[in-house]
Amino acid sequence: MTDTTNANVPHVDQKAKDAYFTASQGQLIWTRFKKQKAAMVGAWVLIILIISGIFAPFLTPYDPTIAGRDKTYQNGAPQMPQFCDDNGCSARPFIYTYERQRSIKTNFRWVTTIDTDKRRYLQFFVKGSEYSIFGISGSTHLFGVDSGQIHIFGTDSTGKDILSRTLHAINTSMAVGTIGVFIAFVLALIIGGISGYYGGWLDSFLQMITDAVRTVPAIPLFMALAAFIPDTWSAEERFFFISIILGFIGWPTLARRVRTHLLTERNQEYVLAAKLCGASPSHIIRKHLLPSFTSYIIVDLVISFPYMVLSETALSFIGLGLKDPVNSLGVMLQNVTSADVLLNYQWYFIPVIFFIVLVMAFVFVGDGLRDAADPYGDTKK
To answer: Which whole number is the average pLDDT over 151-164?
Structure first.
């Protein structure tokens, strides 16, 4: 009887080799990317944060604006559900009832009294404030309590739920970054493509503009723009204005890379063949030159996101960007600058943790994509 255990091994290896040599550029990048554990962890964390931001109205129990505040629990500490206490255990998680009042003994500061005999049980899919996701209206929230309110991350000085504000802030900061990256991406492809394809005096002129934009200092620019923005502007108008400005000052780096690639590729045989076939310059750039380094453009876009988020956060933090009632990570970080918060209300720093995790996830994914897009990455040891 013939042993066929290893008979198919060469055949399997040959199939793997054929699949490797016939794979598309995207498939090769994905294969290399999957081998990097840090990048995969960062990708999953990033996906979870983005989904949490998009579906924040459903995942969080309350409206993050002043309309959803808890007037009886201002600067309240986090309320963590539990199953057991001195009175016994419960199959359902619960929190205690909190009573807050001002005391003359503490110079009329708020004093929290915990009533351990009054439990409030956690419930799922409860009715609450109205919201809209992708144009679909709803009022069901993932969790709540049978009476009163629950604040897992605590509340701020006005009684607004920090968990609700944090997840909505992630969505806002990502939206600002997306708009900014999209504007920068379009400008970079247009300016870099024209400059690299035509060269000559047009290239010199466009590079003068690129250098001028690169040398503009961001902080003084936004200080001037902050003085220009009227106080009558709504939160939405300020939001789109900040996004557009971030996009208009963020395109030079990618434009330079597009230009450099096109300068080296425009004299290749396939470009000459396209010209001889009567293809227009715009067709050659869009259909032949730009797709030849699509992977690098994608990597640049991913890497640009954390810088856009950092820019929005920094500007909002120093008061030059978004402001209340908009919920963004930068706006929330404004609340942690006082010594009173540092000493008494440490839960204000919870959004800082989310901000750090979001930026680090982008960095890990960007580094992973950069290595995966390197055609010589497999040969580096």
So the answer is: 89
